[in-house]
Amino acid sequence: xxxxxxxxxxxxxxxxxxxxxxxxxxxxxxxxxxxxxxxxxxxxxxxxxxxxxxxxxxxxxxxxxxxxxxxxxxxxxxxxxxxxxxxxxxxxxxxxxxxxxxxxxxxxxxxxxxxxxxxxxxxxxxxxxxxxxxxxxxxxxxxxxxxxxxxxxxxxxxxxxxxxxxxxxxxxxxxxxxxxxxxxxxxxxxxxxxxxxxxxxxxxxxxxxxxxxxxxxxxxxxxxxxxxxxxxxxxxxxxxxxxxxxxxxxxxxxxxxxxxxxxxxxxxxxxxxxxxxxxxxxxxxxxxxxxxxxxxxxxxxxxxxxxxxxxxxxxxxxxxxxxxxxxxxxxxxxxxxxxxxxxxxxxxxxxxxxxxxxxxxxxxxxxxxxxxxxxxxxxxxxxxxxxxxxxxxxxxxxxxxxxxxxxxxxxxxxxxxxxxxxxxxxxxxxxxxxxxxxxxxxxxxxxxxxxxxxxxxxxxxxxxxxxxxxxxxxxxxxxxxxxxxxxxxxxx
Amino acid sequence: xxxxxxxxxxxxxxxxxxxxxxxxxxxxxxxxxxxxxxxxxxxxxxxxxxxxxxxxxxxxxxxxxxxxxxxxxxxxxxxxxxxxxxxxxxxxxxxxxxxxxxxxxxxxxxxxxxxxxxxxxxxxxxxxxxxxxxxxxxxxxxxxxxxxxxxxxxxxxxxxxxxxxxxxxxxxxxxxxxxxxxxxxxxxxxxxxxxxxxxxxxxxxxxxxxxxxxxxxxxxxxxxxxxxxxxxxxxxxxxxxxxxxxxxxxxxxxxxxxxxxxxxxxxxxxxxxxxxxxxxxxxxxxxxxxxxxxxxxxxxxxxxxxxxxxxxxxxxxxxxxxxxxxxxxxxxxxxxxxxxxxxxxxxxxxxxxxxxxxxxxxxxxxxxxxxxxxxxxxxxxxxxxxxxxxxxxxxxxxxxxxxx
Amino acid sequence: xxxxxxxxxxxxxxxxxxxxxxxxxxxxxxxxxxxxxxxxxxxxxxxxxxxxxxxxxxxxxxxxxxxxxxxxxxxxxxxxxxxxxxxxxxxxxxxxxxxxxxxxxxxxxxxxxxxxxxxxxxxxxxxxxxxxxxxxxxxxxxxxxxxxxxxxxxxxxxxxxxxxxxxxxxxxxxxxxxxxxxxxxxxxxxxxxxxxxxxxxxxxxxxxxxxxxxxxxxxxxxxxxxxxxxxxxxxxxxxxxxxxxxxxxxxxxxxxxxxxxxxxxxxxxxxxxxxxxxxxxxxxxxxxxxxxxxxxxxxxxxxxxxxxxxxxxxxxxxxxxxxxxxxxxxxx
Lengths: 492, 404, 332
Prior knowledge:
The complex is a heterotrimer.
Chain A (H helix, E strand, L loop, with lengths): L1 H5 L18 H4 L1 H4 L5 H12 L2 H18 L2 H27 L7 H15 L10 H20 L7 H22 L2 E2 L2 E2 L7 E2 L5 E2 L2 E2 L3 H24 L1 H11 L1 H6 L4 H27 L1 E2 L6 H14 L4 H17 L6 H20 L2 H25 L12 H8 L11 H18 L2 H21 L5 H19 L14
Antiparallel strand pairs in A: 1-2, 3-6, 4-5
Helix pairs in contact in A: 5-10, 6-10, 6-13, 6-14, 6-15, 7-8, 7-9, 7-13, 8-13, 10-11, 11-13, 14-15, 16-17, 16-20, 17-20, 19-20
Chain B lengths: L1 H43 L2 E2 L3 E8 L6 H21 L3 E8 L5 H13 L3 E5 L4 H14 L2 E4 L6 H4 L7 E3 L4 H15 L4 E6 L3 H16 L3 E6 L9 H5 L7 E4 L4 H13 L5 E4 L15 E4 L7 H8 L11 H17 L4 E2 L1 H9 L2 E2 L10 E2 L20 E5 L5 E3 L2
Parallel strand pairs in B: 2-3, 2-4, 4-5, 5-6, 7-8, 7-9, 9-10, 10-11
Antiparallel strand pairs in B: 1-12, 11-15, 13-14, 15-16
Chain C lengths: L4 H44 L6 H18 L10 H28 L7 H23 L4 E2 L21 E5 L2 E4 H23 L1 H11 L1 H6 L4 H27 L1 E2 L3 H16 L4 H22 L4 H15 L14
Antiparallel strand pairs in C: 1-4, 2-3
Helix pairs in contact in C: 1-5, 1-8, 1-9, 1-10, 2-3, 2-4, 2-8, 2-9, 3-8, 5-6, 5-8, 6-8, 9-10, 10-11
């Protein structure tokens, strides 16, 4: 035995391509097999591993704290306060739908309930002016209890049935505050269609939050606190239990997770957050009506969570930013050039995403411009009235576009026809093989520009919704988990 | 293993928290003094008028109130085009989509328009609740707003918006008084059913008419229906007694009122419909015998006909007409303020308050001057008498004929 | 504006038998519409487990197509051809148009996502719904269009004389049963019977039932699943288109937003009746229509919606899978 241990071991046979004895190939090549997307996405993912959530939060809080210094009041309200409102609401919805997997279509009623309750307790309506330090916790607790109440049917109702019961609840709330408005203590409880006005501003220990900047900071601190809290919940046993509940309720129940209790808890937390946001919302507007808590708001909150990715906290923040900023960019208040630039950039982005090679993208763009110039010249020669229309709100960019895009003068229906043609063309292009697609792209891109200039630019608010709908469809086809969510596979 | 890993994370999170709190404390202290200075500055900042000035235009162009908001937008645009054609100083409407009934958007639009330094006055917003929430932002920005459709009496009578809020449409109390008087004295009705449409405009009118008619001794039954969501009124109609003489429907959607009236007839009830100015829409409402209260617009008027041929596409969109007048009022005031090449918002406010448009130039059928004090049912910002509603009746040919 | 309980009983007594019959008639007419829409929801759900939010907008497009046909022949109230053939033509064109639209939506929006989680499909459906609604808004504007069904085909429209659609056919307890209401009810029943026969007796129906039970097994049996799903969407959308035209003929006023609430009610009816079950959709539709009608009639506009929601929630709590829904057996 001793003599065997003295002898040096033979060198390892070098067989790079064959299996090695005593080595688990799969484990050994783990690094190579790991999904490492190249380029921008890979870099982002690696960055995400380094920048942990607390650091993300610190960066977000720090940056957000500086916003009032470089935005005017109007923009602060639109881009700052609105974003934070949707962050808060998105966090609450994320708890119910993203963490626990319960489809709640009446979420916005919790928001409204919180706002109305705060309004009743701190306004001129009944002359009760309780201080915020008393009202806000009371409202949060009551709304959370309401959430518990709504969660009780969730024991018996699954999936779509729960969705419809929660939808009823949401609609019932709106009808109740708008039309039913029962008379309590001599006055309509909820103020009917006029709602409740003259709501007291938030005041903590003598400091009142009356200016937009102060209200912004209140929202920011709340968002940071709630993000921190939810992060801890996520990391804890409860968070893991919620995630397993979302993935497969039956299996979760089978391994001993208290499914019903968790569902109730999710509802309560989500409702509590919504109630809290409702209080602040009332003070922002100084008046609340039923229309603030109806389906369009619900859709926006869902869009925030969908875009950001269900179950992802930073996704909610990102989703709120993207949704609010893009909606505003396309709003009629901004000069049309904003929206125009964004639209053309969108076309370019779509081409880039479809073709994935820079020289091809350049080729297509050049072809589009060439096609446009050619068409414009041809039409001008043959029937000038079809090319002579003015560009709406042009400026310098407009002059450039005028010479390139076909804008008929006085042919009102052209915009409509072009729009229908564009929809048909886009649908047709999705059916072409990728190798053939490149030939059709310049024509479709040019058609999109024409549709923008002749139809969308005249009704930007409607165009905004059309693009939003198309975006949802495309998003679900291309990246259903949203920007920062994790892909899910449903086993049916 | 996990507990050890938690601590750095905990510290990092707490650190972030502390940063945020410190930032909050510091900035609240800093902004407390700064914000006080801002309104005065916005109010009296002089801007150079140049060739073109901006006027804000807040209307619910999309959303459930879209049809109404688009009417207002078309009339507003029409006013802009006509003004620019006839005057050297051009106006430019800066549009804001208030998406009624979500008043948060109205606040957003108000804040944006108020922050937009080049905007000297604002036309809108449309709904009374929207005016309610826009008051603070506009006040802080020092900018006047003239609404063509916000009719809640309390907006002016409370006196809280004196000098800032004006409207080119008579208020709910004026309208309900006229309707109640006509129903009682001219139509001599004693059995009336009042149906509100579960929105701010109709509830105000319905409450007023109900109160006045009951005080005059008539029997009034009150009903309610959501005109936006319901098209089948047959069950509501079942509640209306067969011997009802008048059904008062101060709704906004004339198409729904037409539908309601047809179903009423089809059910065998012969009650007459009586509506508010929201129903003054010859394109949608054609039921003979229907009465409406409206301001004395002459439908043959050249401007209205030009609108019909142009942006109206055949319709007269009378709901948006007062918005045209509001743009006109704003433009005139801005022109006067710009007489010396510069204008401030405070100046424009003062000129609006002193508006004096003679009857011949006013599309509303009466001269336009604004009330400065509270004198029920008028308040500061309402149009002074003889701003008044008259009563129209639809004749057998579907035309609106003045009857009172 | 309070409504104490005993005043409800007063109202019931005041309205009496004729009131009850009138409300019943209204509920049946409205309920038939809801049932047709619910059928589309339930068929698609049965096969794909997808709640097609865009279904209400297909119904809206059907109503607009019918309006277009009406206008192509001179428009209400005096079209250039006789009323009955015109109405039949409106139905046929609208049904075909809606059917094609439904197939197109399935092909381009839902087929690529066939194996995705249900929430993804739901969101896509929502996106399609926005897209359709606002496309109509862009193309046709926001104002209401009217079928003018009250005067359609009337001999003297200028004098506002009622046309043949609203003419009473018979009277029970002083309540007129209008021709259009009976026609709507009868047509709905006929369509539902046709659908039931299709599903029960034909090969296509068998294929649909097989696919609804298990996609993969059906595919292995040689059923072209894509074709079956397309056919399902086609049939569901055809029914929605028919409902759209019926809505126009009964209630006249259409606009781009009408699909939203109708879709909601239809969806409710499908769920209450038991989603995935065809007789359940019919029953649910009629139930929702009747509940709405009686609540509106006896309680008035302030409490009726809440009462409707309350009753439907109660039904769902008592029978969590809907009235005729199958007890969901969860496979592990």
